[in-house]
Automatic annotation (TrEMBL):
<feature type="transmembrane region" description="Helical">
    <location>
        <begin position="111"/>
        <end position="129"/>
    </location>
</feature>
<dbReference type="GO" id="GO:0005789">
    <property type="term" value="C:endoplasmic reticulum membrane"/>
</dbReference>
<feature type="domain" description="Major facilitator superfamily (MFS) profile">
    <location>
        <begin position="205"/>
        <end position="460"/>
    </location>
</feature>
<dbReference type="GO" id="GO:0022857">
    <property type="term" value="F:transmembrane transporter activity"/>
</dbReference>
<feature type="transmembrane region" description="Helical">
    <location>
        <begin position="407"/>
        <end position="424"/>
    </location>
</feature>
<feature type="transmembrane region" description="Helical">
    <location>
        <begin position="259"/>
        <end position="276"/>
    </location>
</feature>
<keyword id="KW-0812">Transmembrane</keyword>
<dbReference type="Pfam" id="PF07690">
    <property type="entry name" value="MFS_1"/>
</dbReference>
<feature type="transmembrane region" description="Helical">
    <location>
        <begin position="6"/>
        <end position="30"/>
    </location>
</feature>
<keyword id="KW-0472">Membrane</keyword>
<feature type="transmembrane region" description="Helical">
    <location>
        <begin position="374"/>
        <end position="395"/>
    </location>
</feature>
<protein>
    <submittedName>
        <fullName>Major facilitator superfamily (MFS) profile domain-containing protein</fullName>
    </submittedName>
</protein>
<keyword id="KW-1133">Transmembrane helix</keyword>
<feature type="transmembrane region" description="Helical">
    <location>
        <begin position="310"/>
        <end position="328"/>
    </location>
</feature>
<feature type="transmembrane region" description="Helical">
    <location>
        <begin position="282"/>
        <end position="298"/>
    </location>
</feature>
<dbReference type="InterPro" id="IPR036259">
    <property type="entry name" value="MFS_trans_sf"/>
</dbReference>
<dbReference type="InterPro" id="IPR011701">
    <property type="entry name" value="MFS"/>
</dbReference>
Length: 460
């Protein structure tokens, strides 16, 4: 029975990792196609020769042929696309995370994820494929469809977390399992990087058609192939006694003020961490992402081993803060190591908070209210993370452009420091609890060895 449970659980986790990669690939596609969309919406050969215009399009006469530019300049088109893929998308995904988490606590999570995949895939096709195919252009239409891609894309993460919890009821290796989802991001980025260029010969719109269709198709895999919890399986046998996990894991016996304080602390901290737009600086996205995956899995394994979360988050953020302040040298080649270290440590902290810690706070809320709240709490905390990410993507490039590398890094360092301060109330008690547990474990082992020696002496 244990073997069956393990393999069903492993297959479920792999299926969810692929699903997470699908949602992530949709997000990357909107960003990857930005330059091609700008080229399509503006005519590079004759923008200065525009003689007449309407509100939405600008006819251009070149060599006896008429071309249409939807913007007066490439800069105007670039600004519109930038607002689409940053402000519109990330504000929409923030709302989707909250709504998806709430719906996941009412309905089965696999149903909510399936709806998110179908709706996000269809919206992606309507956003990038349909307008180019029928030669239709409308700014409000693009804003709405991009917002729908983000909103329904947010349905994925809170419900993925809830299903993982359903297959890890004793929280065994929970952090390690959650950190494996970074593989989904890496796979999504790798697939898009390798294959997007092949679509350029036919038109970027076919990339939207392909990715959108894959999202819709994968919804059937989730709907028919996933079970929300191991407890729903006929072969499941509850474990008697205590979990094998360390007893100083996150305390689930929280209620009222304590519970709201935990949610507020981790939401505020995640918002501040996400405002550190480290992606603004990294040089090799795939190599960086691979480093993030390996570091994240290691951090998750350590967190499970010591049985505590927030001290690891505090250590990661402290390392990134020190690296930001002490590692800056003003040289682009030296900053490669600095920004990579900052990105990996911050990504690890983000994954621990919005995955492991959010789920455990949700379990505490469920235990306190006798109503499932894992999806809602995960959605709330992830909502603030998405808001912070949107803010970082908007103000980061602006500060970088007008004030340079050093000023931007110091602002990011200030956000990082505030995030640590916010979590001090949780980190300090957890460190004390961990030290006491280690001390107690050491004393118990010492006493046991003394008893063994005394028994051996008594025999002689």
């Amino acid at each position: 029975m244990e073997s069956r449970t393990f393999w069903h659980g492993a297959l479920t986790i792999v299926t969810l990792i692929v699903c997470y990669g699908m949602f992530y690939m949709a997000r990357l596609l909107i960003a990857a196609a930005a330059d091609k969309m700008i080229e399509t919406w503006t005519d590079e050969r004759g923008e200065e020769s525009s003689e007449s215009s309407t509100e939405e399009s600008f006819p251009i006469l070149i060599d006896g042929e008429t071309f249409t530019s939807h913007f007066e300049s490439k800069e105007e088109a670039a600004e519109f696309v930038e607002n689409l893929k940053e402000a519109t998308y990330f504000s929409s995904i923030a709302l989707g995370l909250f709504a998806g988490g709430a719906l996941g606590d009412i309905f089965e999570s696999r149903i909510v994820i399936s709806i998110g995949l179908v709706a996000s895939g269809v919206s992606l096709i309507f956003y990038g494929f349909l307008p180019e195919t029928v030669h239709f252009f409308s700014k409000p239409y693009l804003i709405v469809t991009c917002a729908l891609v983000g909103f329904f894309g947010g349905f994925g993460w809170p419900n993925i977390v809830k299903i993982v919890i359903g297959w890890r009821p004793e929280r065994k290796s929970l952090a390690f399992t959650m950190m494996l989802f970074a593989l989904g991001e890496y796979s999504g980025r790798s697939l898009l990087s390798d294959h997007f260029i092949h679509f350029e010969d036919y038109g970027f719109e076919f990339a939207f058609l392909a990715v959108g269709s894959v999202l819709v198709a994968y919804s059937f895999v989730i709907y028919f192939g996933i079970v929300d919890s191991v407890k729903d399986m006929s072969f499941y046998v509850p474990q008697n006694g205590h979990s094998e996990e360390h007893h100083y894991h996150f305390d689930l016996n929280l209620s009222g003020y304590q519970l709201y304080l935990e949610i507020s602390m981790f939401s505020a901290s995640l918002l501040l961490i996400r405002m550190v737009d480290f992606e603004l600086f990294y040089y090799n996205p795939l190599l960086y992402q691979l480093g993030t995956v390996l570091a994240g899995i290691t951090e998750g394994a350590i967190s499970d081993f010591i049985g505590s979360r927030s001290p690891i988050v505090g250590i990661l953020m402290t390392i990134s803060l020190i690296t930001m302040i002490a590692g800056y040298s003003g040289k682009s080649d030296a900053s490669i190591l600095v920004t990579t270290a900052v990105g990996i440590t911050i990504e690890g902290a983000v994954d621990l908070i919005q995955g492991v810690i959010a789920s455990e706070v949700g379990m505490a809320a469920t235990k306190s209210n006798n109503i499932n709240r894992v999806g809602l709490v995960t959605g709330i905390i992830s909502f603030f993370g998405a808001v912070g990410l949107a803010a970082g993507r908007i103000y980061g490039p602006v500060v970088f452009k007008h004030h340079g590398f050093q000023t931007t890094f110091y602002i990011f360092a200030a956000c990082n420091l505030l995030a640590i301060i916010v979590l001090v109330k949780r980190i300090v008690p957890d460190v004390r609890s961990f030290v006491r547990s280690v001390k107690h474990h050491f004393e118990r082992n010492t006493a046991s060895k003394k008893e063994d020696v005394q028994m051996a002496e008594d025999r002689f």
